[in-house]
Design goal:
Blueprint: E1 3-8, H1 16-29, E2 33-37, H2 40-46, E3 49-52, H3 79-91, E4 96-101, H4 103-114, E5 119-123, H5 139-160, E6 163-168, H6 175-183, E7 188-190, H7 198-210, E8 216-221, H8 227-235, E9 242-246, H9 258-276, E10 282-287, E11 290-295, H10 296-301, H11 312-319
Parallel strand pairs: 1-2, 1-4, 4-5, 5-10, 6-8, 6-9, 7-8
Antiparallel strand pairs: 2-3, 10-11
């Protein structure tokens, strides 16, 4: 294989640039030409493709977002869209493709593989909701961003003896809420994977107030409900001086942490190695600190993302009131 390409798709995640950098530099090291595709699958179909050099990816490892840009392109789900993309790959002489993104990106990667183009998927989403890996690129940075906000919000909550409801991202997964909530010492962590009792939460806040606790921090995953609705429901059980904060897209930005940079670098290099070996239709993962390869079809159809492999939710319940 002498010529490959790389694209980023779906929501941006800190560390995507580090992954692209690794693909390019590993490829060049192995004597392979590497092309970058702008705006994901939309750019692929449009032929927005350019050759990348070692210099092109210089000074990128510490930057958030993706310098290849990203775009939603639902038209790629159709065979017509896929064939247009393949036409562009043939035009540029590209023999293999690295797709960096989430499950939607994986579906596009799988479609290309079925059409005969070896494609490797790299998991990159702050939601951390991809099956076959304990951690996705961007997740560690996101939870540290949330943690910084929790620490600051606590100051205000304590000063005014308030209950603060903090809504975090994650789509249908509770990973961001769980990890940042434990790290931030939240009194309650509400995630889609676990049921909760609002009356029980209210009673817990009352008990805390009785022992002169000055604040309560509740971290709510967006997959459960919106923060304003949660705050309104909680207020039905008592006047807890409840306020809410929606952190929003700030969670997706920022310079990636060391962990995300290393994870992205290893994934990027391994993707090139797999393509060189003539392999495709695979996704990369990190499970129990070991780097693994998964079948793309199996990842999308059969594997399930495990939100809490370490029983962190149970731990949060045991230590949150200490």
């Amino acid at each position: 294989m002498k010529r490959i390409a790389v694209l980023t798709s779906g929501g941006d995640a800190p560390g995507m640039n580090a992954a692209v950098r690794a693909v390019v530099r590993k490829g060049v090291y192995e004597g392979i030409e590497v092309f970058g595709i702008n705006y994901g699958f939309a750019g692929l179909v449009a032929g927005d493709i350019r050759k990348l050099t070692v210099s092109d990816v210089g000074e990128k490892i510490y930057k958030g977002g993706t310098f290849l840009y990203s775009a939603r392109y639902p038209e790629f789900a159709s065979e017509e869209g896929q064939l247009k993309g393949i036409e562009q790959l043939k035009k540029f002489g590209i023999e293999g493709l690295v797709v960096i993104g989430g499950d939607g990106s994986y579906k596009g990667a799988l479609a290309l593989t079925k059409h005969g183009y070896p494609t490797i998927g790299i998991p990159a989403t702050i939601d951390n909701d991809i099956a076959g890996t304990d951690f996705c690129i961007g997740f560690d940075t996101a939870i540290n961003t949330v943690l910084e906000s929790i620490d600051k919000i606590r100051d205000t909550a304590t000063s005014h003896i308030r209950t603060l409801v903090i809504e975090v991202m994650g789509r249908d997964a509770g990973d961001i809420a769980l990890w940042s909530g434990i790290a931030g010492g939240a009194e309650q962590i509400i995630i889609p994977e676990k049921e909760f009792d609002m009356e029980e939460i209210a009673n817990t806040i009352r008990i805390g107030r009785e022992r002169d606790k000055k604040h309560s921090i509740i971290v709510v995953a967006e997959g459960v409900m919106k923060a304003d609705k949660f705050a309104a429901e909680l207020s039905k059980y008592g006047d807890f001086q409840t306020r809410f904060t929606v952190l929003g897209h700030v969670q997706r930005g920022g310079s990636p942490t060391a962990r995300d940079r290393v994870l992205a670098s290893v994934f990027g290099a391994k993707a090139v190695e797999l393509l060189m070996a003539g392999k495709g239709g695979l996704s990369l993962g990190n499970v129990e600190n070991k780097y693994v390869e998964n079948d793309l079809l199996d990842t999308l159809k059969n594997k399930k993302h495990i939100t809490d492999p370490l029983n962190l939710y149970k731990l949060s319940q045991e230590i949150s009131q200490g």
